[in-house]
Amino acid sequence: MDGKESITIRPMGIEDIDAVHTIETASFTKSSWTKEAFLREVAANKFAHYFVMEKDSEIIGYCGLWLILDQSQITTIAIREDQRGHGFGHQLLKFIKEYSAESTTTLSLEVNVDNDSAKSLYEKEGFSYGGIRKDYYGPGEDAHVMWVKLDE
């Protein structure tokens, strides 16, 4: 970030789903997130909280999470490929951690065991490894479970 752009993080609306889905499918070639799935999350899931990150009024990233009892779970998160490497992922995760800490004590996520850049980002943000979910993304595609305590 060079300090000249205007960055905003706001709740995702139905009107944002096309842009978010474009980032999702470009970021995750085997994504199971359809436009309809995003719509259900935004419009009907009382546990779901979804946000978009805008740079100069253009959506460059998003994050979804579920807040259930004392735990938060990131369901999906991505920064548009041409905007990666500028600190936006850190900024979005910091926002999500602060938002989650208002009502929960733990934040968790799953990340593909081969996604080294995402794992590095999560480690820098204080996430620890909690195990492996076998075949989480499909046959032979495992996920690391990662979590961070928010009340420390």
From TrEMBL:
Subcellular location: Cytoplasm
Main subcellular localisation: cytoplasm
Origin: domain of life: Bacteria
Function of the molecule: Acetylates the N-terminal alanine of ribosomal protein bS18.
Reaction(s) this enzyme catalyzes, per UniProt: N-terminal L-alanyl-[ribosomal protein bS18] + acetyl-CoA = N-terminal N(alpha)-acetyl-L-alanyl-[ribosomal protein bS18] + CoA + H(+)
Organism (species): Salinicoccus kekensis
Keyword line: Acyltransferase, Cytoplasm, Transferase
Protein name: [Ribosomal protein bS18]-alanine N-acetyltransferase
Gene Ontology CC: one annotated term: cytoplasm
